[in-house]
Design brief:
eleven-stranded mixed beta sheet, 8 helices, globular, Elongation Factor Tu (Ef-tu), domain 3, 2 domains, Aminopeptidase
């Protein structure tokens, strides 16, 4: 069963790339009793180590704690704020929502997210235009002098959205990738006997290019890497079935390919076998665009066998990201099964016969 209250607290903690202190502190509190060692590297990655029963393989699991957000870029003479995105946004998903401006003094200011366009009542036929991020501004509901006294360039902004259980799903901002941070914590909690040396990494700055995964992976030097992330569930109107990538309520997604890596085929086979053996609902995934931390883990030192376990999620990079509670539980179950079995197979490529 999904611990909704724990998940809710993880989803609500603020933290855009480079400003992850609050969410990292929260995760550290939950990770500390579950691991044998806990440390923070110079780039802010939180690394928990759980020793194995024997000299098993070094397995790194990684989920990122950062959320997409903004920096304050400019404050005009009327007190309206312009934004620098930190991570990828579809501007269509931003209009008429609310945001929080996190100031240098520690104050959190509620703001309205609005488009720089005439109200619909004043527009002439054909005057509407395609929306760009540059058109978006924040309205704090304050006189310009008060805004400039409280807010400065470089203050950071998060979207506001309370997590909710919706039918048999959970919906919120930051499922990408706080949902998988929760999955990592819960898997470590459920973990039984294992041989592997497990490195559970809550990492930073994924949304701006997998930056810190490389550094964490070089420090850990894993033989096996499992990235934990969400993936596109395009099982919605407007998306043809062949482009859906994954579907909700059909289990954890075992990634075959994305633009950052191709999963090790022997590792994929092991994950599939475990899922079938333990009757864990699962599906296979090919993502044409987008990547995960597995791409960074694959490139360290001598290379690592990597794959991604992903949670199918609708409306990614919006305040309404939505995932199935059953799929979340399936992801936890498969991750636990793999961690307990890691070391029982080799994922190395075989030397050709006669070589």
């Amino acid at each position: 069963m999904v611990d909704i209250e724990l998940l809710r607290s993880i989803l609500q903690a603020p933290g855009i790339p480079s400003r992850e202190d609050a969410i990292r502190d929260l995760v550290a509190g939950h990770m500390k009793p579950l691991v044998d060692e806990l440390s923070i590297d110079p780039l802010g990655n939180l690394i928990g180590v759980k020793h194995g029963a024997r000299n098993g393989p070094r397995v790194m699991i990684a989920a990122h704690v950062d959320e997409i957000g903004f920096f304050v870029k400019y404050i005009d003479d009327r007190g309206f704020i312009r934004l620098q995105p930190v991570g990828g946004f579809d501007p269509r998903m931003l209009v008429a929502h609310r945001a929080i401006v996190h100031t240098r003094s520690g104050e959190a200011l509620l703001a309205l997210v609005q488009p720089g366009a005439k109200p619909i009542h004043l527009q002439q036929p054909g005057e509407a235009k395609d929306l760009k991020i540059e058109d978006i501004f924040l309205d704090l509901g304050l006189p310009a002098d008060d805004v400039k006294a409280k807010v400065e360039v470089g203050d950071w902004v998060t979207m506001q959205s309370a997590p909710e259980v919706l039918g048999s799903t959970v919906t919120s901002k930051t499922l990408d990738d706080r949902l998988c941070v929760y999955i990592m914590i819960e898997a470590m909690r459920r973990l039984g006997a294992h041989e592997a040396e497990i490195f559970a990494v809550a990492k930073t700055q994924e949304e701006v290019g997998l930056r810190e995964a490389r550094d964490a992976a070089f420090a850990v030097d894993p033989e096996i890497g499992i990235a934990l992330d969400v993936t596109i569930a395009g099982d919605i109107p407007g998306t043809p079935p062949e482009s859906a990538v994954t579907t909700l309520h059909n289990g954890v997604a075992i990634k075959i390919f994305d633009s950052s890596h191709i999963s090790n085929p022997k590792l994929v086979a092991h994950l599939r076998d475990l899922a079938e053996e333990k009757s864990i609902p699962h599906q296979l995934e090919i993502l044409p665009r987008g990547g995960t931390d597995a791409g960074a883990m694959q490139q360290v030192t001598n290379g690592a066998a990597v794959a991604t376990l992903a949670v199918p999620t609708r409306y990614v990079h919006s305040v309404n990201e939505t995932a199935s509670l059953a799929d979340i539980d399936a992801t936890i179950s498969l991750l636990v099964a793999f961690l307990e079995a890691a070391g029982s197979r080799s994922y190395a490529y075989d030397l050709p016969k006669g070589a």
